[in-house]
Amino acid sequence: MSTPINLNKVRKERARASRKAQADENAARFGQSKSQKDASKAKADRIARHLDAHKRET
Questions:
Q1: Cα dist. 47→30, 42, 44, 50, 51 in Å?
Q2: Dihedral in degrees, nearest 10, Cα atoms 47, 50, 51, 53
Q3: How far separated are the first and last CA of the chain, in Å rounded?
Q4: How many alpha carbons fall within 13 Å on the CB side of residue 14?
Q5: Distance CA 47, CA 53 (A)
Q6: For residue 38, how far is the Cα from the chain centroid?
Q7: Compositionally biased, Basic residues: which spans (predicted)?
Q8: Within 13 A of 54's CA, how many CA atoms are on the CB side?
Q9: pTM as predicted
């Protein structure tokens, strides 16, 4: 005789796996890696410093 299983646990685990798969897909589609975020922030800071260096003082 097989052991009984808790259907609520199975249902919740299946839903959890589905949400995890969706989250991984969204991260791959829309996300940026930490190095990409750092590079774009550094570039924006560099551009802002360059612009500030060329402003006139009044």
A1: 25, 9, 5, 5, 6
A2: 160
A3: 89
A4: 6
A5: 10
A6: 14
A7: 9-19
A8: 5
A9: 0.52
**Which residues fall within 8 angstroms of residue 32, CB to CB, at 6 or more apart?**
40
Task: Kindly state the tokens that stand for 16.
Answer: 């959890």
Place of tokens 């969204």: 26
- For residues 25 and 21, what is the distance between their CA atoms, to the nearest angstrom? 6
Single-letter code of the amino acid located at 40: S
- Residue bearing tokens 């808790």: 6
Calpha distance 46→38 (Å, rounded): 12
